[in-house]
Amino acid sequence: MLRFAFLLILNLHFCNTPLFSQPSPGRAEHPNIIFIMADDHAVDAISAYGSNRIQTPNIDRLAREGMRFDKAFVTNSICAPSRAVILTGKHSHLNGVRDNVNTFDSSQQTFPKLLQQAGYQTAIAGKWHLKSEPTGFDFWKVLPDQGDYYQPDFRTPQGLVQEEGYVTDIITDEAIGWLDKSRDKSRPFLLVYQHKAPHREWWPSQGHLRDFKDKPVPEPASLFDDYSGRGTAARDAEMRISTHMGLTNDSKIKPELARRLGFEDFIPWYSNAYTNQYNKLTQEQRRNWEAVYGPINADFEKNTPSGDALTRWKYQRYMQDYLASIKSVDDNIGRLLDYLEKSGLAENTLIIYTSDQGFYLGEHGWFDKRFMYEESFRTPLIVRWPGRIKPGSANSDLVQNLDFAETILDAAGLPIPEDMQGRSLLPLLRGQEVEWRDALYYHYYEYPGIHAVKRHCGVRTARYKLIHFYYDVDEWELYDLERDPQEMRNVIAQPEYRAVKEELLGKLRALQVQYRDSDALAQEILLEDLNRK
Q: Does residue 218 lie within any of the structural domains?
């Protein structure tokens, strides 16, 4: 009887104890984990991926010392849904965040909660963008919604606080400050370190205002795409640099000057957004800002472009500010890496760098994201783990943000819940030969909505992509990515692709079954969204 009681007490003890109790930070089976995510960072704006637009030496360092994934993609190319997928390891139709209007149910299972329950100390600093209060974190300090570039507010458990300075620097200060002064150094940690930049409105830091001012950026070949090779969705989308990019909020032409010259922004409140951010600048910041943007405004007034010349001018302005915003992200990643080296944390710290999705840098004449076309579907993914990943390695398997939660749990030595839908990337990171997926599934929901990108789902294999646009249209597109990597020519109706179309349709249906999605569910969600809006 006593033996039974002892075993019962022992069993209860272990059932209510983390999987490990205060493990040493040096134990390789419980690595520290830092998950870094920028917002709207396109693959073609990272020099490690061969960009001819920018040099990103600190992100490149991660690639040089770790693994670069060349075929990493998202499940739903929009901010909040991507974040929900990463946290839960589940597609949008299951985690409940299908668009930027939905609120994340923070009571559900997430990988930070599972790490926390197992003994990890957890923290998040930076962008959250999921409306609800962060859970599963011992420390959190996050931007409300999109946040501001200068003098940003932050949500905290104690309420809203405002910090003076530039948002990318402040987020890094918070991250390093927590690592250095606040965490329990006897336990492994998870740090979720997420930047606002380079999200639209692309306000560079004071130190990078001039970086690209006099450096013309190469134009993409499809800047003046007429969409003749595709369908209704591409033609109807409202994200063209020529007509939908604002002169005020986006190009930094002062509202009064734009109005005097006869320009009206596609969405008028952009003018107010510019004014609100400008008014948050300190006097010194405003002087520095005017020293750069004052001459740009004066030149625009004197030599006002029109037609294709205006599109080209907007593209250059867009790139100057977007790329300069990324320079601050790269600088601050360098600060973090330097801290890890000096503190002795680098060796046993797994670092993941990614973006919540890709972004159009003028391809097809666009900015923004949302489509399943490569530029917004594809995302950067670089992973460094000293001693466990071969430095300078690259991977070309089809991976998704659906896999991140599983990878992190696996790296921490924790079981992966059966209801998560991705796969751990650890075998790929180790360079192992494993049987991997041959197709990816995608589903985008935010329509009707800003930028007017129609609802669609699709499948991508190593060579082909099949997309179904629905709601107010019923159109299919098929692309041969080997012959047409820019996706300029829909070949769905060409007889020689009939067998490919049938094969991809079969894969699409199989993935919908695997991920518990369907056309019927899409219609139910559509009715729910329409009633909500």
A: no
